[in-house]
Every structure is written in C-alpha cells, then in structure tokens.
Design a protein that fits this description.
By secondary structure, the protein is α/β, with parallel strands linked by helices. The strands form four sheets. The chain has a six-stranded mixed beta sheet with strand order 10-11-9-12-13-14, sandwiched between helices. The protein has a five-stranded mixed beta sheet with strand order 3-1-8-5-6, with no helix packed on it. A hairpin with a 2-residue loop joins strand 17 and strand 18. It is elongated, with a radius of gyration of 33 Å.
Length: about 425
C-alpha cells in the first residue's frame, strides 16, 4: 500500500541522575565526594534512506521512544547513555509539529540526517560541586527530563516534471513509454491510485525525473476525489506537462479541462499556479473532427499558445509526437535552476524545553534550632548576581524562590513562620 503521510508520537530518553556519594576506603579517613554523572538520554533522529519510497513503516507503528540514560554511581562512575531511536524515511519527507502544523525539518537536498528531539542531558554527580566553601556537597544534578512531540510526516516526491490532468487521459501510458517505470494501466477512472516516478530514457534527450500524479478532478483542492491526496507531490516539480484527451473519448471538453485543473492548482498553492506548463494533447491517433468544425487540437493551440503555453499533439499509444514534446521539455528544464524546493524550518523543538535544571537541596539544620539550610549551585548562581540590598532585587529573589519550587520544598520540610533560612552566609526569616 502506498503511504505518503503519517502521524506519530516520539519521545527522547531521560537523562540519568547524578549520584551523591563519598569516598570511604581503608586508610582514607575523610574521602571527598565521588558521585558520578548520569548518562545522556537517547535522541530521536530521522535519516533519509534512498531505498524507501513510502511512509508505510509508520502506518501501524506510531509510537517511538529512545532509551533513558542510567543514573551515575559511586566511585565517579558515569551512567550508560540511552540508545537513540533512528527513524528511516524516504527523501522528500517533511516533518511537521502536529499541533501547530509548522515545519520542523524537510528531509531533502543536503538534509540527510536531523535530530528532532535531543536526549536529556545526564545530571552531574556531587563530585563536580566540591568547592573550598562546600567540601561536602550533598546534592547532585538531576538528569534532564524526557521530551515528547506528536509529529506529522508528509512525503512530497522530488521530480523535475509532473504529469497532471483528469483521470484516463494517458499520463501513466506516457510515463511507461518514456521511462522504465511500470505503472498499472487500465481503461477506467482513477486507475492510477499512487504517484509513480520514472527517469526519462529517450535517445538524444538528457534524463530527467518525471512523476505521474493520480488524476485530479474538479473540486480536488477542496477534498473532492483522490486528487487532494496527491497535490502535495507536485509542489517540488520544476515544470508541469498538462495531459488532455484531445479525442474527447470521455465526453469532456479538453479546453475546459485545462482551465478546471489549473483552477485547482491555483486554489491549492500559489506556487503551483506559477509553474511553467506545457500541454500534451493526447490520443490524436483516434481524434475525429466533424467536417467544418475546428479540431480540439486547433482549439487548444488557439486558446493557450497566445498565453505562452505550448501545445503538442501526441499519441502515447503509438509514440507519435513524444520526442518533440520531451525535447522541448528538456530544453525548458535547462533554463530553470535545478534547486529542490526546500520547506524552511518554522518550528524548533529546542525552544519548547527549558534548560534550568541546576540542583539544590533543602534540609533542616542538624546544629541550629528552627533553621533550614538551602544549598546548591542554583542558589549560588542566583545570589551571585542578585543585589539583595535593593527592594527590587530582594523581590526578584523572592519570586525566584517561589518559581523554582524552593519555597514549596521548604514547606514540605516543615518550615514555620519565624524560622530561619540559611543560604551561603545569608540568613532570612520565613513568613508565609
């Protein structure tokens, strides 16, 4: 089954916690802190696999989780890092954040590998926090938490030329004649249910990639028929071949067909409306024109060539006119820069997750009555750049204690009004 879109949930690994321990060995009376660091959590990584052409791997498996980092241990042992989860996708896959529908990454061009969610960093053990003023640090840094996102994956094929038109106008036959692609062909509406890619292989013409886009119908951009499912695959094309049934076998007017399909392209995307286009008037081998009337091919030329759109008479069944059409297309492609349309990043997952996870401890003093001690690099950092002598600075520090959860932890430890809070030489009286 062809799958060109999917919705999945991904989770990076949690960082392991740093460890609190002290060296205790024979002949070492008072060993220092030796708590090791936690291991890093695994990341969620997308990689392009040129052997893939669909997103079918995500149709029945939609939750992916990287490994958590192990906690640190005594004797300065660092925890093992969690395993990354690597998701293979075909070239041309665009990764969106599902809620905002904004682009995280476009796996096209030079973007072959992209880290969507970094694993949580492992926390530092207490061996990292020994200072001349704090030689026995009883705290360690927790590992960064896991991160989760819901993603929408969308495959937008990468082709130089897109074959567009109503169902049963001969697009699949054209692709089968000029390339080694083997699309399924039959004489009934919507015979092509999946996009097909082929490399044009005709003597005297430089190869280029051509995509057969399943037949569009009027109203496709609003969700009618199957066309809306495949309009995305035209977005990267540099040029379009608009195939029409010049013999009007289905009873449609080929001139009106062109206008109807172009209207759908315009409603779907302004860029599609502006793509260079050439008209292939197919099935001329069975075209019949009543005496005295203008042939459908002549009507197409009269209507569109004054607008700068060339019209070529062809028969995909017999091959007549095909070389002239492809030679013209190859010449036009040479004038158009061969830069794959890359969808720029609109959403950076890193901005969603704060990085303020320095450790601290809250404990009741063993030597001072009604006194609670708060220690840790988070506190040292804040005291280092806060002027507590100013009213504004003191209010800022109070808000910091509340926002960081320190006040909550003091209350959990049993602090009461009038008790003292000691922080690195600073003493405060607590009042709720």
């Amino acid at each position: 089954m062809f799958a060109d879109h999917a919705k999945i949930a991904v989770r990076s690994g949690k960082g392991g916690d740093g460890h609190v321990s002290f060296r205790r060995e024979k002949f070492v009376a008072a060993g220092g802190p030796d708590g090791g660091n936690g291991g890093n959590g695994g990341s969620v990584i997308f990689e392009v696999d040129d052997g893939l052409s669909t997103l079918v791997a995500f149709r029945h498996h939609y939750k992916f989780r990287a490994g958590d980092g192990q906690d640190g241990d005594k004797k300065r042992q660092t925890g093992k890092s969690g395993e990354d989860v690597i998701l293979k996708v075909p070239a041309g896959t665009v990764i969106y954040e599902a809620e905002t529908n904004k682009v995280i990454a476009d796996m096209s061009g030079d973007c072959r590998r992209f880290v969507v969610l970094k694993g949580g960093r492992g926390g530092k053990g207490n061996m990292n926090y020994a200072t001349p003023t704090m030689q026995v640090p009883k705290y360690a840094q927790p590992g960064q938490p896991a991160r989760e996102l819901v993603l929408r994956l969308e495959l937008k094929m990468i082709a130089d030329v897109g074959l567009i038109g109503f169902p049963s106008v001969g697009k699949s036959t054209i692709l089968s004649k000029v390339s080694h692609a083997d699309p399924k062909i039959a004489d009934y509406p919507f015979t092509t249910l999946v996009p097909n890619l082929g490399v044009v292989d005709v003597d005297g013409i430089d190869g280029f990639v051509m995509a057969d886009i399943p037949g569009l119908i009027e109203g496709a951009s609003d969700g009618a028929g199957l066309g809306i499912e495949f309009l995305r695959h035209i977005e990267r094309c540099r040029m379009l071949i608009h195939v029409v049934d010049a013999a009007a076998i289905e009873g449609r007017d080929p001139v009106q067909d062109v206008y109807k399909i172009n209207a759908e392209l315009s409603k779907y995307s302004v860029r599609l409306e502006k793509l260079p286009q050439v008209i292939a008037a197919n099935k001329i081998d069975v075209m019949q024109t009543p005496e005295g009337e203008q042939s459908p091919f002549d009507r197409l030329k009269a209507e569109f060539e004054p607008k700068g759109i060339r019209v070529f008479p062809i028969s995909a069944a017999t091959g007549k006119g095909m070389h002239e059409l492809l030679y013209f297309v190859q010449g036009e492609l040479a004038k158009i820069p061969k830069n794959t349309e890359i969808f720029p990043q609109e959403f950076d997952p890193e901005t969603m997750f704060p990085d303020d996870d320095l450790p601290y401890t809250v404990r009741k003093s063993d030597t001072e009555e009604n006194t609670f001690v708060v220690e840790g690099p988070k506190i040292e950092k804040m005291l280092g750049y806060t002027n507590l002598d100013s009213e504004k600075g003191f209010r800022f520090f109070q808000q910091f204690l509340k926002d960081s959860g320190i006040l909550h932890d003091l209350e959990e430890a049993g602090i009461r009004d009038g008790d003292t809070v000691r922080m690195y030489g600073q003493h405060f009286e607590y009042y709720k």
